[in-house]
Amino acid sequence: MKKSAIIISFICFVFSLNVKAQDEHHKGKEKIKAAKVGLITNRLNLTEEQAKGFWPVYNEFDSKRWEIRKSIRQITAESRNTTSSEDKILSDLKEILNLKQKDVDLEKEYMSKFLKVINVRQVSELYKTEQLFNAMLFNRLNKKDGKDEKMKMERP
């Protein structure tokens, strides 16, 4: 009886740690998204009318792009398996290229959608701002993880 109580307590403890970690991960993602929205809003100088039309389109675009890039990351991670056959590796490479083409096609499709709600300068600024945000996020994450020095030493 005592053993089962200890086991149940341990399982509950591990479960609570997992829930807490997932909650913290979710909060971190929400903070990143809020920072991105703030930066884009600021840099694009959206009017209230533009913002009403822009954000639904952008969120749809960002969600679709996220799924494509997630698939690329998954295939890349799977292809690190050194026991894969050459046919599997070739198939993975082709699939990655197809997904990258989908990403480009998505950008083309959404550029025209963006141009219906914001002007061409704002669309250009959107792409620059996304690159800036990603660079800022990458740098911040590297500093937080202490990888900054390690990466400098690994680069040729």
UniProtKB/TrEMBL annotation:
Top-level taxon of origin: Bacteria
What are the boundaries of the signal sequence?
1-21
Keywords noted in UniProt: Signal
According to UniProt, the name of this protein is Sensor of ECF-type sigma factor
Query: What does UniProt list as this organism's lineage?
Result: Bacteria, Pseudomonadati, Bacteroidota, Cytophagia, Cytophagales
